[in-house]
Specification:
This is Putative beta-lactamase. The chain has about 250 residues and is α/β, with parallel strands linked by helices. The chain is built from seven helices and twelve strands. Strands 1-2-3-4-5-6-7 form a seven-stranded mixed sheet, with helices on one face. It has a five-stranded mixed sheet with strand order 8-9-10-11-12, with no helix packed on it.
């Protein structure tokens, strides 16, 4: 079990909750008594996801669907068992669906990590994530493309709006939630990571990205957003201009 903290941003029609742990985050979108889950942590975080749902006064049976920012094990892993147990659908960007199915795998492996493995921070990070199931290669065979209709928003609680952010993986996606005030940035833009010496807005090391240039272009697109809170895939939430945070991360890279 992991220690987690929950922070919330209230909109006019829904509340967005960031669940922040030492290794990865997930998001709960609450609208009335219904929920949307965005990402699900590592396989070993499945029970933590359930606990976080109960902490905000809801039940896992209230989840109407889950969205993936991307299909790396630390974001998809918990959803593998949870979607099967509670019967909710899982959706991803159309370009990410094959990754979620594990028809392809765009993920850093031992060869990518080995050149950094001598660093104490990397060893501590590995010691924390391997027990959570970091080596799992399980996918979600019935993951489907986002059900986007005539409007830009997905027809799920919280009305999340996809923001194409390809690069970290081929079909990586962000989401605008909280009536557009919050950007869920996945791993395109983070505020901390277990192997990073930086705090605040930052890009992950190059070895974690499928396409480095495309990821930078995605973060550059964030500089044109009006969102005022960042919900990253790793690290604490950041209140303030998301556009400024994106600029800062690009300048630091």
């Amino acid at each position: 079990m992991s220690t987690f903290r929950v922070g919330a941003v209230e909109g006019d029609h829904s509340t967005a909750h960031l669940v922040y742990t030492d290794h990865v985050n997930w998001i709960l979108l609450e609208e009335g008594s219904d929920l949307t889950l965005v990402d699900g942590g590592y396989p070993g975080n499945a029970a933590d996801v359930v606990d976080s749902i109960r902490q905000i006064g809801r039940r896992p049976e209230d989840v109407r669907g889950a969205l993936l920012t991307h299909a790396h094990v630390d974001h998809l892993g918990g959803l593998v068992s949870l979607s099967e147990k509670y019967g909710f659908p899982v959706y991803a960007d159309p370009r990410e669906v094959a990754h979620a199915h594990r028809e392809v795998l765009h993920q850093a492996g031992p060869r990518d990590i080995a050149p950094m493995a001598y660093r104490p921070a990397v060893l501590r990070w590995l010691a924390g994530i391997i027990p959570l199931g970091a080596l799992s290669r399980n996918g979600i065979p019935d993951a489907a493309p986002f059900p986007v209709g005539e409007s830009a928003a997905i027809d799920l609680p919280g009305r999340p709006v996809p923001v194409a952010a390809h690069g970290h993986t081929e079909g990586h996606s962000g989401f605008l939630v909280g009536d557009g005030a919050v950007l869920v940035s996945g791993d395109a833009l983070d505020t901390a990571h277990g192997i990073s010496k930086l705090s605040g807005p930052q890009l992950l090391p190059a070895c974690f990205h499928h396409d480095i240039d495309a990821n930078r272009a995605a973060v550059e697109s964030f500089t044109r957003l009006d969102a005022t809170t960042l919900f990253p895939g790793h690290g604490p939430m950041l209140r303030g201009s998301v556009a400024e945070a994106a600029h800062r991360a690009l300048d630091r890279d």
